[in-house]
Design brief:
single chain, about 300 residues, alpha+beta
Length: about 300
């Protein structure tokens, strides 16, 4: 290639460069998959209106804890659920816009009436505001897709994975459901009380379990029961119950490293004679149970241990 040809090539390249510089035309902007950008360490207030629910609830940081509040109910939130929610906010990624017009909001359930609405704030400033809409699961590919809209624009984003599902949790999922949490090896005494009957079983100095009258009980049965006490959770809350009157049944637990002990009180529910509302000294909430649920699990007669 001679110098003349090289000169022509050079002039053409310079021309292309100048044209692109001064007449750029319509450029394609790079797509940012991180549609939600929030430093979760700054978040101290989260408002959630779950899908299909007209009432929102709040999660607010209170020192090292979080408080969950809704319609007059305020309770310490389950820390693992709040941590999961904040993590899911960070995991939202998209690689495509499904639609750009408000007319499509209802189709993808990202309109205010049908979507889950999540607002995260920090220091009074809104850090994230989004609507979580329709969720699809493809059985063939075993893949999940949900649709999200930011409050700041009309675009509907397709988000792959399950992260967005964690943003649509109900209020009850953030409530502390722990009734009892203890170490069975620490327990030294159990006191059961029910109408017309009460008894005790206690651990002697040599490790033998004895009934209140000094008779021995089946140690294997006691060990089996204590194992059930290590981590007891409720599922259904009895928010309409106010705990008036004395409980009909109680279980009191004493032991090492338990200066205050623990107590579960069962109240006869006005709904039906077989139903109970119960409360633990480890949780301020009332839970519901029928005679085959938590009641049967925690309330035993002396015959069970013999």
């Amino acid at each position: 290639m001679n110098n003349k040809i090289l000169g022509i090539v050079f002039v053409v390249l310079v021309g292309i460069f100048l044209l692109s510089k001064f007449f750029p035309g319509k450029r394609v902007r790079s797509f940012d998959p991180e549609i939600v950008k929030v430093d979760t360490s700054l978040v101290d207030d989260i408002s959630i209106k779950p899908k299909g629910d007209s009432i929102s609830f709040s999660l607010k940081r209170n020192g090292a804890d979080w408080m969950a509040s809704r319609a007059g109910i305020s309770t310490k939130a389950a820390p693992q659920m709040v941590s999961s929610l904040l993590k899911n906010l960070q995991l939202i990624r998209t690689d495509r816009i499904t639609a750009k017009k408000e007319e499509r909001w209802e189709e993808y359930e990202v309109d205010p009436a049908t979507a889950s609405h999540v607002v995260a704030k920090g220091g009074g400033k809104t850090l994230a505001d989004l609507y979580v809409g329709r969720f699809n699961f493809n059985q063939q590919t075993r893949s999940a897709t949900s649709y999200i809209r930011l409050a700041s624009g009309p675009e509907i984003y397709a988000v792959d994975g399950l992260a967005s599902m964690g943003l649509s949790q109900a209020f009850s999922n953030f409530r502390n459901k722990t009734l009892l949490k203890l170490n069975k090896a620490d327990v030294t005494a159990l006191d059961f009380s029910s109408p017309g009957s009460s008894f005790q079983i206690r651990k002697s100095a040599n490790g033998q379990w004895l009934a209140g009258d000094g008779s021995t009980v089946d140690s294997a049965k006691v060990a089996q029961f204590l194992a059930t006490l290590e981590n007891v959770s409720g599922s259904d809350f009895a928010d309409g119950f106010n705990g008036d009157g004395p409980p009909s049944h109680t279980l009191k637990i004493q032991g090492n490293n338990m200066p205050q002990g623990a107590e579960v009180a069962f109240y006869q529910s006005p709904i039906a004679p077989a139903n109970f509302a119960l409360r633990s000294s480890m949780n301020e909430a009332y839970f519901a149970s029928d005679s085959t649920g938590l009641f049967q699990r925690l309330m035993k007669n002396l015959d069970y241990f013999q």
